[in-house]
Each structure stands twice: as C-alpha cells, then as structure tokens.
Amino acid sequence: GVTQSPTHLIKTRGQQVTLRCSSQSGHNTVSWYHQQALGQGPQFIFQYYREEENGRGNFPPRFSGLQFPNDSSELNVNALELDDSALYLCASSRQGQPYGYTFGSGTRLTVV
Amino acid sequence: EDQVTQSPEALRLQEGESSSLNCSYTVSGLRGLFWYRQDPGKGPEFLFTLYSAGEEKEKERLKATLTKKESFLHITAPKPEDSATYLCAVPGAQKLVFGQGTRLTINP
C-alpha cells in the first residue's frame, strides 16, 4: 500500500515542513491532496510523474513537491500559515490507468 | 469545470434502517465515478468504480448505481461499523474531483 510519514506533526507559523510518501509497488504517479476537515472533500494539490510536476491545483507556490526515482515523494510547504492545518493525503497510481488510485492514511499537520 | 455534489451532508440512521446517499456530477465526459469510505484521521478507502449509466456494483451491505447525472450509494440493513464519511469522486485532468462527502452515523 501507500505509506505516509509522519502521521502527526505540529509546526509553528512561518516554519517549513516536509511530508513523505512511499508509493504502492508498481505505481509510478504520485498525487497529493489537502483535506481541511472530514466534512470537506480532499482538494488536489499536485501530481508527479517521472519526477516532474504533471498537474497542479489552486495552491500557492510555497507548496512544492519532489518525486524520486523509486517513485517515493515529498511535499514541502514553506512559510506555514495557520490555514495550512489539514490532513495531507498522498495517492499513488499508474500513469495511463487513472482509476487505480490508492491513498495513504495521511499526515495530520497542525500549525500553531 | 468538473463538479461533484453530495447529499445529504450528514445522515443518522438506526441499525437496520436502510437508506441512500446521493452524488450528483457535472463533467465534460464521464470517465468513471468512484466511491470511497473515509474514517476519521484516515485516508479514503476505495469501494467502487462505475463506468457507465445503468451499471451497479455491490459489496456486502453497499450497492452503488450510476445514471447519466448522478450516482447513489444504497446501504441495506446497516450496522454501527458502517459509520464513516462516504466520498464520491470523478477523474479530471491528472486529478480526482471529490464531493464534500456524506457523514453517516449508524446508531445501535
């Protein structure tokens, strides 16, 4: 499956944070989603394929990512704001087979 | 732009009381519709994919159906362990577009 680390994180406003994701075996595409609350659907941040950004949602440039040759991924957020507090979800899939999204359990980020 | 709307936002049922959740969508060309289950603090867990109007899929007490404008998730004789948020989503360009979810609570 997809594993994310850490599971929980508390940061101070203005700091930077890095979240990590290991894809499911055989998957070569990684997407990141932001979910403010359980009453809100996950919002697309960006997708990476072949180590390049392959699509981006309405998130500012201080949200950035990386995909590594082993298809693992990082999400970096600079200059944290209180509103960045959310559940960050990673999903892996195989390019050309978009219907096989597998989600990780997420990282709960709290910005104080 | 693709849009997905779910109703109701929250639903509380007694154990054994059947009901349905609705997912309405507006897309330029449907390439599938997904249902997920999400428990608090967890990622979405895949339930069903539906590809064409008239298609139905079942899993235990859940059955998903699809028309040209909406999908329903029918829950028959639910149990307390079916309590969760149920999300539907459609595939857009490089992403899934989610509805806001229906929070389902089953009381014993």
Low-confidence stretches of chain B: none
Molecular shape of chain B: globular
Kindly estimate the percentage of residues of chain B that lie in beta strands according to DSSP.
over 45%
Catalogue the unreliable spans of chain A.
none
Please give the radius of gyration of chain A in angstroms. 13 Å
* Largest sheet data of chain B: 6 strands, mixed
Distance between termini of chain B?
41 Å
Number of helices of chain B: 0
Oligomer: heterodimer
What is the general shape of chain A?
globular
What percent of residues of chain A are in strands?
A: over 45%
Instruction: Give the radius of gyration of chain B.
Output: 13 Å
Number of strands of chain A: 11
Number of helices of chain A: 0
SS-derived structural category of chain B: mainly beta
Summarize the amount of helix of chain B as a percent range: under 10%
The overall pLDDT of chain B, averaged over residues, is 95
Q: Helicity level of chain A, as a percent range? A: under 10%
Short note summarizing the structure:
The complex is a heterodimer of chains A (112) and B (108). Chain A has 112 residues and is an all-beta fold.
Can you give keywords for this protein?
heterodimer, A: 112 residues, mainly beta, four-stranded antiparallel sheet, 11 strands, 0% helix, globular, B: 108 residues, six-stranded mixed sheet, five-stranded antiparallel sheet
Which helices and strands appear, and what pairs or packs with what?
The complex is a heterodimer of chains A (112) and B (108).
Chain A: E1 3-5, E2 8-11, E3 17-22, E4 29-35, E5 43-49, E6 52-56, E7 63-67, E8 73-77, E9 86-94, E10 97-103, E11 107-111
Parallel strand pairs in A: 2-11
Antiparallel strand pairs in A: 1-3, 3-8, 4-5, 4-9, 5-6, 7-8, 9-10, 9-11
Chain B: E1 3-7, E2 10-14, E3 19-26, E4 33-38, E5 45-50, E6 56-59, E7 62-66, E8 70-75, E9 84-92, E10 95-98, E11 102-107
Parallel strand pairs in B: 2-11
Antiparallel strand pairs in B: 1-3, 3-8, 4-5, 4-9, 6-7, 7-8, 9-10, 9-11
